[in-house]
């Protein structure tokens, strides 16, 4: 899979990194303009921009798209964030209770990213690496499974701290590599969040506190549930209709079915919500 290589540094002071989001500044900030796709990478005057890590979704530490800021159970949300920052090379991270980093050692760490596009919010969608970059910055290089294994994206999947979240722009060989790593993590006794995950078994949701304090579920499902509850009712009877209205478009790998609306793979019985297909079986289109 051809991707644009950009060399630079990770910088996290005055930001709120989570397990799948971190800031990056290219050595040559003009290279942001080489990122393809319909959306431009949004960056500050120093060239620092936010990355959304390709193909993974970690528990939310701060989500506020449709209402007050909420989070998923913080044990695994913080574990994913801390694993990301430690893997990149940050130590002595100082942050108050609002999740904003005020000090780190070192102030920045060198690394590189591989990207094809930015999302609608201007975040660069990227595989993130550390150390020596695997080519010439600002050029396209071919990314295969062995190279994918050198990224933090693969590392977080392998440690069981991230769910897979696939979009159709990711080539099938890289997707298959990540899915194999997911299954290995799930098979390992007590690894990461998987022993606590109830996405397929079913989560009992009686209100917002169920989502923030109790249940470990696929973050995309969490976000949809939060947005629904923010409409003002804890009665889940209307949740499937809400999902249909959201019109998430995705492909179900196991059945070959292309569909619109997560209601096709989400079941609600009383206060229990579950997905009928695991996240690695779904390939989404960007909204």
Distance from first to last alpha carbon = 22 Å
Shape: globular
**Structure classification:** alpha+beta
Low-confidence runs: none
Q: Mind explaining what this structure looks like?
A:
The protein is an alpha+beta fold and 287 residues long. The chain folds into two domains: 186 residues, OB fold (Dihydrolipoamide Acetyltransferase, E2P) (Beta Barrel); 88 residues, no CATH class. Helix content is 24%, strand content 26%. The chain contains seven helices and 17 strands. The chain has a five-stranded mixed barrel. A four-stranded mixed β-sheet has the order 11-17-13-14, with no helix packed on it. Strands 12-16-15 form a three-stranded antiparallel β-sheet, with no helix packed on it. Strand 15 and strand 16 form a beta hairpin. It is globular, with a radius of gyration of 19 Å. It starts with a strand and ends with a strand. The model has no long low-confidence stretch (mean pLDDT 96).
């Amino acid at each position: 899979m051809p991707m644009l290589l950009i060399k630079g540094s990770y910088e996290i002071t005055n930001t709120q990194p989570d397990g799948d989001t971190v800031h990056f500044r290219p050595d040559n900030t003009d290279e942001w303009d080489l990122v393809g796709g319909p959306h431009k990478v949004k960056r500050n005057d120093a060239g620092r921009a936010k990355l959304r890590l390709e193909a993974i979704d970690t528990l939310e530490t701060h989500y506020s798209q449709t209402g007050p800021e909420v989070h998923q159970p913080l044990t695994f949300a913080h574990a994913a964030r801390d694993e990301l920052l430690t893997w990149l090379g940050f130590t002595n991270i100082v942050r108050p209770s609002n999740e904003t980093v005020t000090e780190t050692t070192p102030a920045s760490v060198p690394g590189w990213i591989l990207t094809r596009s930015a999302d609608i919010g201007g975040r660069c969608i990227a595989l993130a690496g550390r150390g020596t970059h695997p080519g010439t910055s600002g050029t396209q290089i071919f990314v295969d499974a062995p190279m994918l294994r050198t990224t933090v994206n693969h590392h977080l999947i392998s440690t069981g701290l991230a769910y897979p979240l696939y979009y159709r722009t990711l080539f099938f060989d890289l997707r298959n590599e990540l899915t194999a790593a997911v299954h290995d993590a799930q098979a390992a006794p007590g690894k990461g969040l998987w022993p606590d995950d109830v996405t397929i078994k079913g989560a009992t949701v009686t209100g917002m506190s169920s989502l923030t304090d109790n249940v470990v579920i696929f973050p995309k499902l969490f976000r949809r549930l939060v947005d629904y509850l923010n409409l003002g009712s804890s009665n889940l009877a209307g949740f499937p209709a809400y999902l249909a209205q959201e019109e998430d478009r995705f492909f179900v790998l196991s059945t070959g079915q292309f569909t619109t609306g997560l209601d096709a793979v989400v079941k609600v019985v009383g206060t229990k919500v579950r997905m009928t297909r695991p996240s690695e079986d779904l390939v989404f289109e960007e909204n």
